[in-house]
Automatic annotation (TrEMBL):
Organism: Phycomyces blakesleeanus (strain ATCC 8743b / DSM 1359 / FGSC 10004 / NBRC 33097 / NRRL 1555)
Gene Ontology cellular component terms for the protein in this record: peroxisomal membrane
Stated name of the protein: Peroxisomal biogenesis factor 11
PANTHER family on file: PEROXISOMAL BIOGENESIS FACTOR 11 (PTHR12652:SF19)
Chaperone among keywords: no
Length: 247
């Protein structure tokens, strides 16, 4: 009888104070994994993403090209092989960019932009088509006279695009007014936007210097274009890296 009473009391105790069981292993595992998921992509994942993009390959080639141009210009590299290699890299990039006018043409024909933007879009299309003609000229496929005229047209169109983009970038930076820590948007994200807008402006200034040297050809154009080309390519690569690592 005493045994029955003791058993009954034990059962009642278990009902009133159930033992605390550990969480299932799969729940713990999922929680642990979620806590260790990085907010940014790894370096290898970012590099893979960039190399899968056409723009990423172009920026990589451009950085290599102008790194060697700077070294050649300052007589760090003396072999005749290196200037030939930089010329081939330039031609490779031109070939890879063939047909880039198709995108702006589609936008223009589909009326996807306001009428006020049509002139800039036409300028971009003209620039891209002129670049294609220059590429064919570099490949010795068309008349040199036509190729040189297209090259001059491309320079002026690119300069107009740079000025327009620089104006937009400065306006975007101006709109990023300082915020306090207690506002809805985090202060860190705001500072990141300010930094990237500043990077864009510096990159466009470098492009402007490079293009201006193509148009007016000052005596120091060799040095200016070597360094401005390198700065532009590095900053463009950095922008692409930043975008790829956070998406």
């Amino acid at each position: 009888m005493a045994t029955i009473v003791k058993t009954t009391q034990t059962i009642q105790s278990l009902h009133s104070n159930p033992p605390k069981l550990d969480a299932p292993p799969d729940i713990i595992t999922n929680r642990t994994i979620a806590q260790h998921v990085p907010s940014r992509k790894s370096v290898f994942a970012t590099v893979q993403t960039i190399l899968l993009l056409f723009d990423g390959r172009d920026k990589a080639l451009k950085t290599i090209q102008y790194t060697f141009k700077v070294l050649i210009h300052h007589n760090v590299l003396h072999s005749k092989l290196w200037p030939t290699m930089t010329s081939k890299l330039s031609l490779t990039r031109r070939v890879l960019r063939l047909g880039t006018a198709l995108g702006p043409i589609r936008i223009l024909t589909a009326s996807l932009v306001p009428p006020t933007q049509n002139l800039l879009l036409l300028n971009t299309i003209t620039n891209n088509l002129a670049d294609d003609v220059v590429c064919f000229y570099k490949l010795s496929l068309i008349n040199p006279v036509l190729g040189k005229q297209a090259q001059k047209t491309a320079h002026y169109c690119w300069f107009i695009s740079i000025i327009a983009d620089l104006k937009s970038a400065c306006s975007a930076l101006w709109r990023l007014q300082p915020i306090s820590h207690d506002q809805d948007r985090s202060y860190k994200n705001h500072q990141d936007d300010v930094w990237m807008a500043s990077v864009s402006i510096v990159k466009l200034v470098a492009d402007g210097v490079f293009c201006a040297c193509d148009i007016w050809q000052p005596s120091f154009s060799g040095t200016a274009q070597a360094w401005s080309g390198l700065i532009s390519s590095v900053l463009a690569g950095y922008k692409l890296w930043h975008k790829s690592s956070t998406t």
